[in-house]
């Protein structure tokens, strides 16, 4: 008799999702799906709003990566205005985006995933949280909290708010950087370096103990896409997109935001409110690809900062071509944190960083505009159409989670086939399947908002819907 | 991060879009104005309390947490001591309570504030709204007075008047 296992909701993610695992008559895993179960309405309720409101409106989609939405949205608005923002404004935005990346990656690695990595995938679920990490490795707990504060404090200093800062506007930023704020950020940098060095050392000590997870956590050939600079270095805020195939060969390059819809399509599956992005020339699902830290490091040939470049060279040794094991998203995330700290330090040393010219102004000069940026978890694309008065008539957002959707689903199936045997599962097995999703650090909050606790119930149902077994935590 | 420890840290929690849940940020704003020229008083308002606050809490001489309470009668005021407490099962990553924050600060930084109190205002409604319910609106003057009195006691090193109900 075939059976279905449901994990609902998946814990330690940004937002709500569930997993179902379909077993066949022999109790072997036949299929598995990752479902995003709530709908986002931002595209619709932005219709009719003035375009210049869009950055602050779109930032409300997410409490974790509002800065990426701010930047992608502002860039879409600047396409409508047909303006180029001042150099200093671009540098300040870059710093803001990197600060967000640091705090978001710290949240993902230390708060959400390190309980699995440090305490074990099958450790006591009561301890699998930041308190458990603090108990086992207090120095890592302090490092994680310190890095998150580092990023958040920079966002607060620049945007005057930790969450949903309104500093980024169409045309640039609202105010220049004050010398006192620059000095305050510089004073935090030595501690941030110490914290990420500690984390990288600790990660490298334990990574080799996860051979099975590296093997079966969404480990398969795929395409990858991310922003990259003209000199092939990593980029988060400007630049054009590049797509490579599983061998590392470039299959599409120089994808500016206005070309994105020509190249990327969105498929719909009946089991999820999140769409499935794909590379149009290859069709769906063959054109599926991965985005985020793993993709960025697979595509970039350099980080452009000395310490992160050393780490990138080590990362590239993990495979002869692109690194396919999604478990290595964790390592890629830590390398990007190191890069973020170095790059912020470089930006603050720029003699023009205190310049007061930080905003360009214009009205509606085009009726359509698109913008893109790298959010911590991958490429983010905003696309708007306006009327002659600048009111939004249509909007579409393609978020990183949608672009990783196919890979997450394949990864869940791969792990479930490996760990669920003969229809039997334990809480630890359940956690391993969830941990596949956590490697991607999906931001379901871009679709929905989490509220309160996230209890987890896994149920095993027979084909006729009868309850066979249940685990609740 | 190098922090100058606060003599009195006021740490409010709440969402100004959820009716009476916004009373914490309201009182934080009031405290910011009232104690603007008072050295050693630091005011922080957050929608949710998160682990990053642990260091500031651990190093502060005294901490006054402020939140609304859905368990108390609408408009009722309470000042109660807070003891560090290990988290319960199912801890949420994005929000932890005052007792857990004290515990986390102790674990990580081996330090606790000399005094930790919680001022709560009983909530009448936490539905979507930027307005307070009538009982909470009526309680605001007394809440401000109680907040002022508690902070001044903390600064004097005399916060023995804890566990007060109004």
Beta fraction of chain A: 15-25%
Determine the mean pLDDT of chain B: 89
Beta-strand content bin of chain B = 15-25%
Taken from the alpha-carbon principal axes, the silhouette of chain A is globular
Strand order of the largest sheet of chain B: 2-1-3-5-4-6
Q: What integer value in Å does the Rg of chain A equal?
A: 22 Å
Major β-sheet annotation of chain A: 5 strands, antiparallel
- Total beta-strand segments of chain A: 16
Question: What is the number of helices of chain B?
Answer: 4
Structural class of chain A: alpha+beta
Helix count of chain A?
15
Mean pLDDT, all residues of chain A: 89
**Beginning-to-end CA distance, first to last residue of chain A:** 27 Å
What does this structure look like?
The complex is a heterodimer of chains A (473) and B (166). In chain A, a hairpin with an 8-residue loop joins strand 1 (3-8) and strand 2. Chain A is globular and about 65 Å long. Chain A has a 5-stranded antiparallel beta sheet, covered by helices on one side. Chain A has a 4-stranded mixed beta sheet with strand order 8-7-6-11. Chain A is α+β, with helices and mostly antiparallel strands and 473 residues long. Residues 447-458 of chain A have low confidence and may be disordered. Chain A has a domain at 3-38 and 405-472. In chain A, helix 3 packs antiparallel against helix 4, helix 4 packs across helix 5 (130-136) and helix 11 (306-316) packs antiparallel against helix 12. Chain A contains 15 helices and 16 strands. By secondary structure, chain B is α/β, with parallel strands linked by helices. Chain B has a single domain (8-161), classed as Rossmann fold. Chain B has helices at residues 23-34, 54-59, 98-109, 134-155, and strands at 8-13, 41-46, 62-69, 77-81, 115-122, 164-165. In chain B, strands 2-1-3-5-4-6 form a 6-stranded mixed beta sheet, with helices on one face. In chain B, helix 1 links the parallel strand 1 (8-13) and strand 2. The longest helix of chain B has 22 residues, at 134-155. Chain B is globular and about 40 Å long. Chain A binds chain B through residues 12, 63, 107, 111-112, 125-126, 129-131, 134-135, 138, 141-142, 145-146, 148-150, 152-153, 162-163, 187-188, 191, 450, 452-455, 473, and chain B through 1-2, 46-47, 51-52, 54-55, 86-87, 89-94, 100, 103-104, 107-109.
